Each structure stands twice: as structure tokens, then as C-alpha cells.
Amino acid sequence: MKNLSNKEVIETLEWRYATKKFDPTKKINEETWSTLEKALVLTPSSYGLQPWKFIIVQDMPLREKLKAASWGQSQVTDCSHHVVFVIKEKLDEAHITKFIEQTAKVRNQDITTLEGYKKMMIGDLVNGPRSEVIAEWAARQAYIALGNFMTTAAVVGVDTCPFEGIDPVKYDEILGLTGTGWKTVCACPAGYRASDDKYAEAKKVRFDMKDLIVHK
Ligand SMILES: Cc1cc2nc3c(=O)[nH]c(=O)nc-3n(C[C@H](O)[C@H](O)[C@H](O)COP(=O)(O)O)c2cc1C
Questions:
Q1: What residue's CA is closest to ligand 1, atom 24?
Q2: What are the sequence ranges of the domains in the chain?
Q3: Ligand 1: which of 140, 163, 199, 207 to mutate, most ligand atoms within 8 Å of CB?
Q4: Which stretches of the chain are assigned E, i.e. beta strand?
């Protein structure tokens, strides 16, 4: 595997910014988009349980509705692909069983050897005290996917804007999620910056390294 140089890593992270204005004429090609979908799927999650779905919205009438539920932010309709990060509200035994079956299949393992692992996860997340706050837990996993998506996008030269400025309940209604056990957490339009987006040139506002990084 070829690594980026230290300089390239920092340049890539500096290049990424929360894009306020996308160029609506520029679309992400299939190969690049497929890479970004794989980045979403390759995101790590607690126990590996992937309590999420990523809804990719390209349909324009749907995006008009989502824009109205996103404080009217124009990125929703001007971007190439609008990604909605959705989580499972409650983690049930069926989800964990599906994960165990997938593990056994992918790793060609005897499923009975995974019984202890399965019981432990069910005891923790389905029946234990954490089951009370599982939507919060799942939302944290979704944010890891959001970060992974944005960084990977920057590496392949795609612009993004993380979105919390949305009405998740309205998103659920528009996307037909209400009552299904799936809930919207956040979103992320992706595409290419408009040449006149002045935020592209704005200096990054970050606290001093010494205030954020602690060495012990
Ligand atoms: C979780 C999260 C939610 C955000 N929500 C919005 C949003 O709804 N609309 C927007 O334009 N920017 C949004 N931002 C962008 C931030 O304002 C931006 O990332 C921050 O000011 C740092 O700037 P930079 O990303 O350009 O480095 C959000 C950022 C994060 C991480």
C-alpha cells in the first residue's frame, strides 16, 4: 500500500472545508462514488455491529423536500449526492444474529464458536442498561461514518458539508422511515465546490494545538 506523505495528508485536510455552495453542474462519476460508498461500508463500529443505513438521495423532487427540512440550505439540491445517515432505534436479537451469521460466513467459521460473543453482545446492548440509550450509542457510530466519509471524499477530491442543521423528524417522514425503527441522525451533501464559494478560501478557525493536544 502506498501511503500519502505527511505533507499530502495535511494539505488534504486543509483542502476540505464545509462547502456552502456546490456547483450544480458537476456530478461525481460512478467510479468515485462507488469508492465513497465503500468508505461508508468500511467504517468501523462498536463490536462491528453497523447499526446504520446510508440513504443516498439523487431524486430532485425528494431533495427539494429535504432542503425545506434542512433550514433551506442550498447544498441539498446543488450537490451531486445527498447522503442521509440513519440509525436503528433499538438493537434487537435479530440484528445481532444476522451479524454473527455474516461473521461465520465471511470468515468461514463454525457459528457455534461465536455463541459466547453473541450472548455477550445481547447481554450488553439488548438486555443490559445500555439498551436504554441505544439510539444515542448508534448515533455515535453514525458520526464516525460521517467523519470517515468526509475524509475519504477529500482524499479523492470530492467536497462535502456535514449537516446537523436538519429536522430529523421531517427527514424521517419524507424518506418514509417513520414507524420503521430507523431514524435520521445527520446528513452530508457531496459534490464539487462552486468557483465563487468564498468559504473555500477562508482560514480555518481552530484553537491552538497546545490547548487541544495534551501530552503526558
Ligand atoms: C456535526 C456537524 C454538523 C454541522 N452542521 C452544519 C450545517 O447544518 N450546515 C453547514 O453549513 N455547516 C455545518 N457544519 C459545518 C461546521 O460549521 C464546520 O465544519 C466548522 O465550522 C469547521 O469548518 P471547516 O469544516 O470548514 O473546517 C457542521 C459540522 C459538523 C461537524
A1: 17
A2: 6-88+138-212
A3: 163
A4: 52-57, 81-88, 159-160, 182-191
Residue whose CB lies within 8 A of the most ligand 1 atoms, among 77, 143, 151, 164, for a mutation test: 164
Please tell me the pTM assigned to this model.
0.97
Class of domain 6-88+138-212: alpha beta
Strand partners, 81: 190
Ligand 1 atom having least distance to the Cα of 71: 8
Report the separation in Å between the CA atom of 109 and the middle of ligand 1, taken as the mean of its atom positions: 43
pLDDT per residue as tens digits for the range 24-76: 999 999 999 999 999 999 999 999 999 999 999 999 999 999 999 999 999 99
Return all residues near 213 (Cβ < 8 A) that are at least 6 apart: none
**Cα angle: 189, vertex 194, 197; to 5 degrees:** 95
Residue 122 has a pLDDT of 97
